[in-house]
Amino acid sequence: MVVDLSQIVKAYDVRGVVPDQWDESLAELFGAAFVQVTEATAIVVGHDMRPSSPGLSAAFARGAAARGADVTLIGLCSTDQLYFASGRLGLPGAMFTASHNPAQYNGIKMCRAGAAPVGQDSGLAEIRALVGQWAQQGAPAPVARPGTMTERDTLDEYAAHLLSLVDLGSMRPLKVVVDAGNGMGGHTVPTVFKALPVMLVPMYFELDGTFPNHEANPLDPANIVDLQARVRAEGADLGVAFDGDADRCFVVDERGEGVSPSAITALVAARELAKHPGGTVIHNLITSWSVPEVVRENGGAPVRTRVGHSFIKEEMARTGAIFGGEHSAHYYFRDFWNADTGMLAALHVLAALGSQEGPLSRLVAQYDRYTGSGEINSTVADQAGRTAAVKEAFAARDGVAVDELDGLTVTTADWWFNLRPSNTEPLLRLNVEARDEATMAKVRDEVLALVRV
């Protein structure tokens, strides 16, 4: 095949269409390159339920073993289960998944020992260079003593570790609908939830990487319609939806209304600060004003970062932060090797709801204080030019603060917006928040009029 690595090696992972853009022969080269760059003598490898995942992960393992690394194969797992194995076993790891992308896609999320991320600036560029070289010239000869391959089931250990991190002792019985979207939540939820006082109503738990019911991307409102209806029909206390590799979770309340990931970030932050008084909490710059407010109210120190898991994890390591949250429903925990786990966030929500008598809508109202637009994407030919026009229109106004930590952020006493370019598509992404709906709509429409000329 003609290999164009620029199309599949992204900022944080490998991702592309199988077999058009990459296949098992390329996966084997990635395995060899991963071992060479990380200098690993042993690694752990897991995969999701996509039809191509078993073959790709096995090829990666062969490439790694050919370079002398012993490979622990944990088989079907969620991404956060792979991070658990990397942390608990102290090994670099590789997870085969394309998360919420359609069925024809697959990818690799790689990490160093202790779930430390591998991205463009932390090894992925070197891995790409080696794979490109070997794809042209042929793979290097196997080492004299190839590594071994062993299988290990980590699901029970993963569940036990998560449950040890949340106090669930005073939790009242709850009825919970979970939509796994035919993804890896169908594999992990039954084991994690079996010890809880929960009446579980499962939806789409059958592992099926063709996603026959809906895309496994709960941030798209179209993909939680079934969950919302089922929560209302069942009279459930809440609903939880996981994405394809089950590292993100999205929550709906007892009315079937979506709960903002910023509100979940604030709720979990308050609970983590109760365990770790005075701790630092990381949030990206498109989370709600509510998040740093709640962190300060609970005696913590909020730290604002760029959007993207590599930035969150870097800041967590630098500051010793106890928790980090993103508006994309990624939640990161110091007690989980600074890695993201939607399951642990879900357990915090269950514990918080189950320890008091009110409904979830009332509980989260204290953490959801403002009106947000959600992320609005606009296709533009000139990202820089449109951003400059927006900056010019707002920067000179009284009471306006401008920063460019990640795209353009404009802030006043009553509202803020962030406009930032996509790294992979000709898009500008707009997020607006204000103290009331009318103000939010006015600011949103003014910015979009400048972007969409």
Automatic annotation (TrEMBL):
In its keyword annotation, does this UniProt entry include rRNA-binding? no
Q: Where is the Alpha-D-phosphohexomutase C-terminal domain?
A: 375-449
The UniProt keywords, alphabetically, are:
Isomerase, Magnesium, Metal-binding, Phosphoprotein
Q: Does the keyword Endoplasmic reticulum apply?
A: no
Give the required cofactors.
Answer: Mg(2+)
SUPFAM superfamilies registered for this protein in UniProt: Phosphoglucomutase, C-terminal domain (SSF55957), Phosphoglucomutase, first 3 domains (SSF53738)
One Pfam entry name? PGM_PMM_II
Q: Which InterPro entries match?
A: A-D-PHexomutase_a/b/a-I (IPR005844), A-D-PHexomutase_a/b/a-I/II/III (IPR016055), A-D-PHexomutase_a/b/a-II (IPR005845), A-D-PHexomutase_a/b/a-III (IPR005846), A-D-PHexomutase_C (IPR005843), A-D-PHexomutase_C_sf (IPR036900), Alpha-D-phosphohexomutase_SF (IPR005841)
Q: Where is the Alpha-D-phosphohexomutase alpha/beta/alpha domain?
A: 7-131, 156-256, 264-370
PANTHER family recorded: PHOSPHOMANNOMUTASE
Member of which family?
Belongs to the phosphohexose mutase family.
Spell out the protein name for this chain. Phosphomannomutase/phosphoglucomutase
Species per Swiss-Prot/TrEMBL record:
Streptomyces chengmaiensis
